[in-house]
Amino acid sequence: MKRIFVLTGAGISAPSGIQTFRGSDGLWNGYRVEEVATPEAFDANPSMVYDFYNARRSGLFEVQPNAAHRAIARLAKSADVTVVTQNVDDLHERGGASSVVHMHGELRKVRCLDCGEVVLWDTDLTSSDCCPRCQGRMRPDIVWFGEIPYGLDQIEAELRRCDLFLCIGTSGNVYPANDFVSFAKRHGAYAIEFNLESTMISDSFDECVTGDVVETVPEWVSQAESRL
Questions:
Q1: What span, in angstroms and rounded, lies between the C-alpha atoms of 108 and 93?
Q2: Tens digit of pLDDT per residue, the chain (228 long)?
Q3: I need a labelling partner for 90 at 20 to 30 A (CA). Which of 19, 55, 151, 158 fits?
Q4: In the 8-state DSSP scheme, what is residue 167?
């Protein structure tokens, strides 16, 4: 059975209505990154940070997984698939995927600053909410700028062993994810990029599929299922 590594970015969730971080209508409009996405921002103005992520969390309940999310989940029935996402939404899971590695954290989780306890959280988080384990202060379980992404050891191991590397809807602007394709290829993987347009790392791939991922990914999966 082929071993497939799937890396996804904002471009797979955008068709579902999740705003991307960049662009004229991007999520950061009206905010500077330094105001809402760094540990220093949280220390300086926790209320603003809480409000920002509360709004993003509540927005999850207004969107649904799309055909690309569901196709990736279906692919796992024909191959050994590892899904790693830079997204903090839960659309992969709701689309049927299991054991997704969220390298940048998850909106539906919060973390204790004192003991590190991670708790599933679907409502607004405020400064009055305390850790159920130690009564410590809670923060969104999001990897902010300057922090180390989650699961890097597992990700490296899966990149070493994969036969096929699929990169779906990622801009290629963010390290270390933008280096995954080169790492996988050095260890023998064939690499395919799916995106609306060429990216700054497109030249690193063996094959680039341009177009709406809601159409191109399901089509590729349907064709691949008989060969896997």
A1: 12
A2: 699 999 999 999 999 999 776 554 455 556 777 789 999 999 999 999 999 999 999 999 999 999 999 999 999 988 999 999 999 999 999 999 998 999 999 999 999 999 999 999 999 999 999 999 999 999 999 999 999 999 999 999 999 999 999 999 999 988 999 999 999 999 999 999 999 999 999 999 999 999 999 999 999 999 998 787
A3: 158
A4: E
Exactly one of 69, 92, 102, 104 is catalytic; name it: 104
Q: What are phi and psi of 123, to 5 degrees?
A: -110, -175
Is the domain spanning 19-62+105-142 CATH 3.90.180.10? The answer is no
**Sheet strands (E) in 116-189:** 118-120, 138-142, 164-168
Please give the model's pTM, rounded to 2 decimal places.
Answer: 0.94
- Identical fold for domains 1-17+65-104+149-228 and 19-62+105-142, yes or no, is no
Domain extents in the chain: 1-17+65-104+149-228, 19-62+105-142
Residue 216, classed as helix, strand or coil, is helix
The yes-or-no answer on residue 102 being catalytic is: no
Q: By the 8 A CB rule, do 16 and 62 touch?
A: no
Q: Using alpha carbons only, what angle is made at residue 36 by residues 32 and 37, rounded to the nearest 5 degrees?
A: 100
